[in-house]
Amino acid sequence: MKFESLDEFPQTQVNPDESIVLAIGGDLRKIDVIRDFWQEATNCIETKPIAIWINFSSVKQADTKLAACIVAILRRAKEYEVPIYIIGSVHVQEVLLLCKFPPLKEFIGVNKAA
């Protein structure tokens, strides 16, 4: 499955290894977008896949609501014993630094070429 526009619409894909990719992009400062993303992430976690890859590489803007959502997702996944891996844009990295997050072992940063 090829992802269509990732702007503010969470999309999921199940990989052949039964891991799940959850992707979203665009402006993640809107609470309704964060709520939709949280719901989709929760639904994915509850299926207990072997892993979930969250792709934030197309995020153009983010704020502390996204950071709080990431914390909640990691906690929920830990309860269900589902490994989470996060691929994040520079904007997501900046928000996590602003919130003084300790380095997340689950986080892989993506820098766009100039």
Describe this structure as you would to a colleague.
It is a single chain. The chain has 114 residues and is an alpha/beta fold. Helices cover 37% and strands 28% of the residues. It has a five-stranded mixed beta sheet with strand order 1-2-3-4-5, with helices on one face.
Structure keywords:
Transcription Regulator spoIIAA; alpha/beta; globular; 114 residues; five-stranded mixed β-sheet
Q: Indicate the CATH topology.
A: Transcription Regulator spoIIAA
**DSSP helix count?**
3
What's the CATH architecture?
2-Layer Sandwich
Termini separation comes to 28 Å
Q: Quickly give the structural class.
A: alpha/beta
Silhouette: globular
Radius of gyration using CA atoms only = 13 Å
Average pLDDT, rounded to a whole number, is 86
CATH class: Alpha Beta
Strand order of the largest sheet: 1-2-3-4-5
Q: CATH homologous superfamily, by name?
A: STAS domain
Number of domains: 1
How many E-type strands?
5
SSE string? EEHEHEHE
Low-pLDDT segments? 1-5
Helical amount: 25-40%
Percentage of residues in DSSP E strands: 25-35%
Largest sheet: 5 strands, mixed
Short characterization:
This protein has 114 residues and is an alpha/beta fold. It is built from 3 helices and 5 strands.
Topology readout:
Blueprint (H helix, E strand, L loop, with lengths): L10 E4 L5 E9 L2 H16 L5 E11 L1 H17 L3 E5 L1 H9 L8 E3 L5
Parallel strand pairs: 2-3, 3-4, 4-5
Antiparallel strand pairs: 1-2
